[in-house]
Specification:
Layout (H helix, E strand, L loop, with lengths): L1 H18 L6 H15 L10 E9 L2 E12 L2 E8 L11 H9 L4 E5 L3 E5 L14 E4 L5 H8 L8 H26 L3 H8 L9 H30 L33 H14 L8 E5 L4 E5 L6 E6 L5 E5 L8 E5 L9 H9 L3
Helix pairs in contact: 1-2, 6-7, 7-8
Length: about 350
């Protein structure tokens, strides 16, 4: 079921990409993108007892207010869907959905622009839609974990209690992850004090706090890097020992650690994971010790023999779209490849090996 659902969603994504520039109205967005999505979930868009378009909701003194779609099961509404033009922000227009949700018996609401679907519930207060979605599906970034969640909203897989349990877990996991990612970038005083108190008995002066914040940041980055290395080794069945040279060098602590300027280059978890995928591909052809990494403000560079004149690839992960730049046509002819997911790097194994051949 999951494989079939993912395949259909991938086809819908291709359709959205191919047609979106020709879609000029919200109504056209609904017809071209949202109705096929409802069909993919298994609901009959031509059955007015199952999928009701332009469903009338009387909201207080406002009579005749309409919601774009209501999906019913056994005669009861289970999902209301509000649509926006495909260029619209699916996060910015939830006021109407809030009002519709209040007068509906449905437990779930969806706000969509045809390629991003935000799913809402009433986990905070009964019959009042939460401010933030508990689940977001982006057709351009389909993950297996998201497919499993979406399967619970299909006609054959729908289970109210199961979704509510998942919704609560997803909501708080998302919130915890957001806070954790903040700590990775800039550890808070609370986190530093908690960790340091386990082994450091002296008072934490302001100067020591600055130093320990930097130590904590580097310790977290190193730990995550090693975890990624281990995961990739297991996933790719790499049995030989990992090179003793670290994938990303950790620079010595700067004596001027309290300076206000701070580091300008921040290596992200995605860059670490992407670079290790490239390394795993190339180490089938050369010793891993010859593959070096250098992070810059503009890109994350992957070099042969730690030589700037021997670029193999670059990761451009600092914008909303992620790209792998490969140098299979020569060191001065980088070609960018759009990545929907970090695992897409595996699709360019041939190009990465060809880049290596430039220096043979």
């Amino acid at each position: 079921m999951e494989t079939d659902l993912k395949m259909k969603l991938e086809q819908l994504h291709q359709r959205v990409d191919a047609l979106k520039e020709q879609i000029g109205t919200e109504e056209a967005t609904k017809n071209a993108f949202v109705m096929p999505f409802i069909q993919i979930l298994g609901y009959d868009i031509f059955n007015p007892t199952e999928v009701i378009p332009e469903f009338i909701c009387d909201i207080g003194t406002k009579k005749g207010e309409k919601v774009d779609y209501v999906i019913k099961r056994d005669g009861e509404p289970i999902l209301i869907i509000e649509c926006k033009h495909w260029r619209g922000n699916a996060d910015a227009h939830n006021s109407q959905l809030h009002r519709y949700y209040h007068v509906s018996k449905a437990r779930f609401g969806v706000l969509t622009n045809g390629h991003i679907y935000n799913f809402y519930a009433d986990l905070e207060k009964p019959n009042i839609m939460d401010e933030k979605p508990f689940f977001t599906l982006d057709l351009s970034n389909l993950k297996d974990s998201n497919i499993k969640i979406l399967e619970k909203f299909t006609k054959n897989g729908y289970h109210l209690e199961g979704i509510l349990d998942s919704a609560e877990a997803l909501k708080y996991i998302k919130a915890i992850r957001k806070e954790f990612e903040k700590e990775l970038i800039e550890p808070s005083d609370e986190l530093v004090k908690m960790l340091v108190s386990k082994f450091f008995e002296k008072p934490l002066t302001a100067t020591r706090m600055i130093a320990f914040k930097e130590y904590t940041k580097k310790a977290l980055a190193t730990s995550i890097n090693e975890s990624i290395n281990s995961r990739l080794k297991n996933a790719l069945h790499i049995n030989d020992a990992i090179s003793q040279k670290p994938a990303v060098s950790v620079e010595p602590i700067d004596e001027n650690i309290g300076s206000e300027e701070g580091p300008k280059v921040i290596t992200t978890n995605e860059e670490l994971e992407g670079s290790q995928i490239v390394k795993a591909i190339l180490r089938e052809h050369i010793p891993s010790s010859r593959i070096a990494f250098r992070d810059t403000q503009s890109y994350f560079g992957i070099l042969l023999d730690d030589n700037n004149r021997k670029p193999l690839a670059r990761l451009h992960f600092n914008s909303s779209n992620k790209y792998l730049e490969v140098f299979n046509q020569g060191k001065d002819k980088g070609e960018k490849k759009l990545l929907n997911d970090i695992d897409d790097i595996f699709n360019y194994k041939t190009e990465l090996v060809d880049a290596l051949k430039n220096y043979e």
